[in-house]
Amino acid sequence: MHDPRKSDGGVVSMKRANKGAQPEGNGQPPAEFVEKRPPAKGNPVQTTVTGTQRPEAASSGLDRVREAAKRDKERRFTNLLHHVTVERLHTAYRGLNPKAASGVDEVTWQEYGEGLDERLAVLHDQIQSVTYRARPSKRVWIPKGDGKKRPIGIAALEDKIVQQALAEVLQSIYEEDFLGFSYGFRPGRSQHKALDAIYVAITQRKVSWVLDADIRSFYDSLDHQWLMKFVEHRIADQRMLRLIRKFLRAGVSEDGKWSKTVVGTPQGAVISSLLANIYLHYVLDLWVNRWRDHRARGEVYIVRYADDFVMGFQYRSDARMFQIELAERLAKFGLELHQDKTRLIEFGRFAASNRRERGERKPETFDFLGFTHICARKRKGGDFALRRKTISKRLSPCLTPRKTTSI
Prior knowledge:
The protein is of the alpha+beta class. It has a single domain, classed as 2-Layer Sandwich (Alpha-Beta Plaits). It has 13 helices and 11 strands. The strands form 3 sheets. Strands 2-1-4-5 form a 4-stranded mixed β-sheet, with no helix packed on it. A hairpin with a 6-residue loop joins β10 and β11 (about 385-390). The longest helix has 25 residues, at about 270-295. The chain is elongated. The model is unreliable at about 1-30, about 35-60 and about 395-405 (pLDDT under 50).
């Protein structure tokens, strides 16, 4: 019997691309090729560097790590923590937002900067001697667009520094593994580029159905045991693994009361975005590549930004089958789709005409990265156009949701 705690070996090593796509000259699987097309109208070309990696922090040491990760996809790195140097801690501190809220330590960026060299020297010694202790995240609640609230974890200032430096080292490895359709919190990528990929897939590829998927409370549901198994596919440095576990187990503090964390990682923490990408790389991305290569009858596309992703399908039968198997796949790793927010809709260049022939209403819309996507027509010529508008913060009480296509 299959042990659900064991990694799916076939998925871990699988990195297939869209049907018909060929490996690039360097031997790497090609990125989702829609991202190579010109940006959608209205989206400026951007070169974005995330908070977890800055050009000035690059070093010959991490360059060698990066090259080794690129050259050998099966390699496990046993000696990484020494890359968390005093200089890298300095860079991490300088990269923090000076106006950001303080964590449970109540220490501001400006206060920590007094005697910075001495503070970072002590911090470095604690990290290298494995005596560093992570503090709990301070939980605050921020409003969401639907009127509900979302929990955000604010790390103590030293934890932010350590997480920033740690994430930079880990990212030198995982950027060689992550797939092209993953856009969230990665260097050189942005929301604009994710939106451009959606634009090209829908306007130029064979997309007739869109699956707008939502993972329920992803950051709160992330399984620590599975996460560490995934990390250990690449990381064998026990000191580095121990440091990651310290952040996962640090707990949260709300209104002065500490609570233990056995699942999840604080949304908003520096390290959480990278850990989320690692988790979904193994749970979702590699599996999607294998699924569309072996199970799909037609073309399948995906664009993922952190835990938010949209998929395009040529055939409804593929989309329906995928939605069922996706729910089963996520459940294996402690995740589930939000049934009220996950929708399969007819959408694309021919959706309006097909629905009109069947006597149905015009195609529904879907939301992604702050924009509502709408099937429209160009004023000149009447050709298909993908229209986007900023999501309305509030729905008029006189409006009722349209009926959605479900499995």
